[in-house]
Design a protein that fits this description.
2 copies of one chain form a homodimer.
Chain A: H1 3-23, H2 29-35, H3 40-46, H4 50-72, H5 78-95, H6 99-107, H7 115-134, H8 144-160, H9 163-177
Chain A binds a DNA duplex through helix 1 and helix 3.
DNA sequence: ACCTGAACACCGTTCAAGT
DNA sequence: ACCTGAACACCGTTCAAGT
């Protein structure tokens, strides 16, 4: 990759990260290019689709979350670890407006640029969930995909309505997730 | 209201209803005007905002749902009635793409054209919820607003991801809503 | 009273022309 | 190899001019 190309890529990414943090993930691509002082064509050359840009911009945070799940998979209290992970996942998804939409849309669409990102999260999440279910703390009939959808729904509520409603929904979901102790 | 004005209003409404059923609530207003064979300015005259149009287009269905809640409020099994109502609410919200977004956004924004519609639903919903809580079947610390957010979240999942995930989320929420029998 | 559509300020996306 | 921006086909919204 040529030096100027690499520089342009980085400029776009920097600007995109900042703008997405403030105005959400569906910012104007034109505006991103403008602020990065780059032609709109250049933006498209490096990131052929909006999802590719989001992916590149948020990769780090997502990989952190994935690592967290991996590290927690071998703990002796997987149930509590899962709950903690779900909490911070929901919080992270809520931080970028519009992100839950892209996440959940991509989860079922293998052709999406975002599909891999979803899997980055669901793969370690699945292990953690399985371990938590094995201890009998978590309902056995829930899949990672169910969990993924639920977490994004909480994030959606947090950014569409108000935060209090989102935390209530999260509690309801976590409550529903736990097995009843007869 | 002049006869031609009334006719134009009706034409717009008819077209809007059909298009929204197919393509969701965020259809192009220009396109609605086009199909209704009406100037774009005429559409804006009758419906100064998109939310006003959605409101007029979906009023009937929403009032039906509200009536249902009212009629159920005096039943002897309010807990079951509430669950049934929540189910059909979630189903209704899922039928129009983008509707949950507008619903939840408007719920906390009294200046919105949609606010009254939300209240049309939450007012009778609140009564039903209170009665269900009085019997001890439903958690006492949940408000109508929490319920409203949760239901719309289920609708959101139904149209963003797939239906199976939405029904699972609904079951988790309903499960969380029930009080634990020790 | 009401209708119309041009006008304005934006988009996303592509692609010929340039270096 | 890469960059640029004009070009195309769309939006939402307003408002002067018409009947």
């Amino acid at each position: 990759m040529r030096a100027d190309a690499r520089r342009n890529r980085e400029r776009v990414l920097t600007e995109a990260r900042q703008m997405m943090k403030e105005d959400g993930v569906d910012v104007s691509l034109r505006e991103v290019a403008r602020r990065a002082e780059v032609g709109i064509g250049t933006l498209y050359r490096h990131f052929p689709t909006r999802e590719a840009l989001i992916r590149a911009a948020l990769m780090d945070g997502i990989e952190n979350l994935a690592r967290w799940a991996e590290d927690s998979a071998d703990a002796e209290d997987p149930g509590e670890k899962l709950v903690a992970w779900v909490r911070s996942f929901a919080l992270g998804a809520a931080r970028y407006r519009g992100l839950p939409d892209h996440m959940l849309s991509a989860a079922t669409d293998a052709s999406s640029n975002f599909y891999r990102i979803c899997q980055t999260l669901t793969a370690p999440g699945e292990k953690l969930l399985a371990r938590a279910q094995a201890t009998g703390e978590i309902r056995a009939d829930v899949t990672v995909d169910d969990l993924f959808a639920a977490v994004n729904a909480v994030g959606w509520v947090a950014q569409t309505g108000d935060r209090d409603r989102a935390t209530t929904l999260l509690e309801l979901v976590l409550d529903g997730l736990r097995t009843r102790t007869a």
